[in-house]
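Translate structure to sequence.
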C-alpha cells in the first residue's frame, strides 16, 4: 500500500500562520517554511510552528534558498495600496507591488498549486495583472469573493481568493469550486466555538469594558499589536475548505 505524503507548503506573507493552520486542519499539507518580515508575527510562528524556518524578506528569497521542493505556495500579498481604506494606488503601489516577488517565486519554483488572498477591491485594482501573470507563468486560475460569514463567522471580512493550477499537469481542466452558502454548509462546530466567545463579549479592566480578544488595555500596548495581527490575518476555515478543493485538483 503506498505511503501517503503530505503536500509541502511555502507560506508567504505568513502573518501569524492562519493559512498554514487552515491547511494543517485538512491533514493533507505540511508547511515547511514561512516568509514573514514582522518580528511580532515571527514570535507567534515560532511558538505555534516550532522548528519551521522563517525567511524574513520576500525580496531576498530565492528558490535556491529552500531545502525542499514546495508543492503549494500560499499567501495574501500586501493590500495597503489596493484597499478602500488605503492609498488606492493599486497593485503597482509601494506595498502591494510585492505581488511581483510572489509571481517571481511561482516562476522559480513552479509549484503544483497556489492559493492567493487579498481584499475584494483587488477586483478593480489589480486582478487583471495577477491573472495575466499567472497565465504567462503557465497557470490556470479561478477566483471567488468569499466572506467569513459564508463559513459561519459573525463578521463579513470580504476577500477575493485566487486558486491557480499548473496547466501542464496532464488534466483537462479542473473541478470548479462550488458556491458557498450563507448558512455555513455544515460548519456548525465553528459557529459554536465562536458563540462561546460572543456570549461574553466584554471583560473588565477597573471600570472600563474592553474586548474579550486578548483584553486590549492602554496600559498594555503589546495587546494592540496582537489585535493588528488578527486584523491582518485570514479566516482559517476558508483556507481549510480551499485546501480540500486544491488537493482534489492536483493530487
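Result:
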Amino acid at each position: 500500500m503506498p505511503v501517503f505524503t503530505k503536500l509541502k507548503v511555502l507560506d508567504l506573507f505568513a502573518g501569524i500562520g492562519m493559512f498554514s493552520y487552515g491547511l494543517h486542519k485538512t491533514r493533507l499539507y505540511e508547511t515547511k517554511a514561512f516568509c514573514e518580515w514582522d518580528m511580532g508575527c515571527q514570535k507567534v510562528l515560532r511558538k505555534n510552528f516550532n522548528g519551521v524556518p522563517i525567511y524574513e524578506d520576500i525580496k531576498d528569497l530565492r528558490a535556491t534558498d529552500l531545502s525542499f521542493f514546495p508543492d503549494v505556495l500560499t499567501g495574501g500579498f500586501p493590500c495597503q495600496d489596493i484597499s478602500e481604506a488605503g492609498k488606492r494606488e493599486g497593485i503597482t503601489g509601494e506595498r502591494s507591488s510585492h505581488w511581483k516577488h510572489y509571481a517571481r517565486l511561482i516562476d522559480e519554483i513552479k509549484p503544483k498549486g497556489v492559493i492567493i488572498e487579498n481584499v475584494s477591491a483587488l477586483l478593480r485594482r489589480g486582478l487583471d495583472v495577477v491573472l495575466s501573470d499567472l497565465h504567462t507563468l503557465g497557470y490556470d486560475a479561478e477566483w471567488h469573493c468569499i466572506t467569513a460569514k459564508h463559513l459561519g463567522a459573525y463578521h463579513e471580512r470580504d476577500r477575493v481568493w485566487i486558486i491557480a493550477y499548473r496547466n501542464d499537469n496532464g488534466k483537462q481542466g479542473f473541478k470548479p469550486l462550488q458556491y458557498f452558502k450563507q448558512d455555513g454548509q455544515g460548519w456548525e462546530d465553528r459557529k459554536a466555538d465562536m458563540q462561546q466567545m460572543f456570549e461574553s463579549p466584554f471583560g473588565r479592566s477597573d471600570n472600563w469594558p474592553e474586548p474579550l480578544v486578548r483584553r486590549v488595555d492602554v496600559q498594555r500596548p503589546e495587546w494592540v499589536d496582537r489585535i493588528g495581527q488578527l486584523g491582518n490575518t485570514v479566516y482559517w476555515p476558508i483556507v481549510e475548505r480551499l485546501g480540500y478543493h486544491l488537493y482534489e485538483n492536483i493530487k
